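ugh finaly. both done.
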Amino acid sequence: MVDGANDDTTKLQSGASDLSEAQIQARACWYYYVGAMTQQEIADRLGLTRLRVNKILGQARQDGLVSVEIKLPLANCIALEEKLKARFALDDVSVVPTLPDPDTLQQIIGEAAGAMLDPLLEDGIGLGVGWGRTLRATSRALKPRRFSRSWVTALMGGMTRGAGTNTFEVATEFARVIGAECYYVAAPIYFPSVESRSTLLTHYGLAEVMRRAREGHIALVSCGDLTPRSLLASTHIVSEVLDELRKAGAVGDLLGTFLDEYGRPVDHPLNSRVMALDPRELKAYPTSILASGGLPKAQVIRGILNARYVRRLVTDESAAEALLQ
């Protein structure tokens, strides 16, 4: 009996090895989302470990290969949406359930932002985008199309290394999905001095991009807190002055500009050296969406909403409840 079981296991493992990685991923997703099989059942069927199945399913969601649509309303989320609209005079709000894993939470907030943004897109629009994991997930949630008269522009400079979430990469992905021309702020997010920033802004190409950044129709941005999970706070140039930023009253950033709890830019040298659209200029956009969540970001989100920088919000239950306290 034991030998038979071992033979079965060998066959399963052999079967799994005969399948390509793409086939394994496709089968695992189909069995889980369509076949309603448990992860252990899928592991047994494909001759894999349960841990590997879990990783395959998680990666598929992260890469935008699987889209889950739930048509049943979530009563508490809907109630929070209406309260946030009334409290902060917003045009639209989407609240998703809070999840314990921060990466997965960013993924579903990004997907919800995609659902909000998608019907707003039309040929001829100028789309200004920020950066980060959440916005990368948003780009992957959009329906592909060809907008020959549209353009996408980054709203801020970037880092010197790519991670799939940098401004250049995020803007490129949005432009690819909607078939539009892309403009980059080809500069670091922070300059060594105010003078060097001012000098570069006289360059025709960069001045043209910043002009487009101010004249767009739809802005999609995220924000950061001051915890180690923040992309910006973890960079060398910012981590060195985190204590100074906190003493100046900063609770987080929007487009690289550090804000206090009321949404006002704090008095710190970094804010005078940032290469990005000023958050206050977002008010000129006819449509603006902030996609951010998680309890640590609630304070900076509240500041952004109180300052009326954006007109639409996508967040999660925990942040929404904190915003309403």
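ok and the 2nd:
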Amino acid sequence: MSATVTPSATSSTGSAAGAPPPAEGSADGTAVTSAPGRAARPALDWRIRFGALALIWGFSFLLIKVGTEGYAPFQVTLGRLLSGTVVLAVAMAVRRERLPRGARTWGHLAVAAFFLNALPFSLFAHAELAIPSTLAGICNATSPLWGMALSLVALSEDRPTRRRVAGLGLGFLGVLTVLGAWQGFSGLDFGGTAMALLASLSYPIGWIYVRRTLAGSGSSTLALTGGQLFLGTAQIALVTPLFTSAPDGFPLLPTLAVVALGALGTGLAVLLQYGLVEEVGPTTAQMVTYFIPVIATAAGVAVLGEQLSWNTPVGALVILAGAALTQSRARGGRAASSGASSD
């Protein structure tokens, strides 16, 4: 699902826990690019870390659902961002990274934090008060579809092709399948579903903004991500007291869920994604997002006992197929211009 950015010069459209994000984007609202130098290869094989990342982000929607059983949605978001920020602060201290400098950079990071963290995290938490975690995870998979549609207007380098337009149409056909359009959306909670879809739309808005404003900032991805999460935490910390009261207690399972959501899904996952991009490149690393809605659906059914009708998994597969088509031209472009951008 997934906190921030150093945009690359390559073209792409967009994810969170969904079909592929931009090559520099992560499934948790972060953006990651390959670093100038390759670090020493970790002892743990990249395939194991890839699988761990898919599981962490896939289970994020389940953790949100459990967290909202004990806390208000804004409180879940605040705990999530705070835990994630602590993890990245420790990582920055270990690597001796410094936060970005310059008021202009921090101003852009504040906007990125809103669209990539504070807004979508809060919307998903509110949405899961009314809809199953499985539906939230699948709605999140529409993010690259929104991203492609927006990029055709906002990014001059992203030109429409028949394949990409077909992918966009196929993806939204999948959305209608998931929502049961042929039966009049019977039993669908429109408010919760709309919030989940708006959360998915928020990610590509943030990514496009970042690509336009933070390219060539001179700061590392880890430093920008740490700064963005800090600002997202501050934004939610200001809002939460206005809409919620202090919790009566700290119930064990919801508390553990919120801490795990932040420390693992918003902290550790960013570091895993950062390492994968450095080792195997953004094109391979972004493939993790194809597994997220599948894992989110399986977790919701197996652990939470959520009901699943045939149209939900079928529609999800159609969404992912459409998302894959929308990304295919960008991948081809990268392969053709490998001299300018290394994966």
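summary for the 2nd one i guess: Confidence is low (pLDDT under 50) at residues 2-24, 32-38, 330-343.
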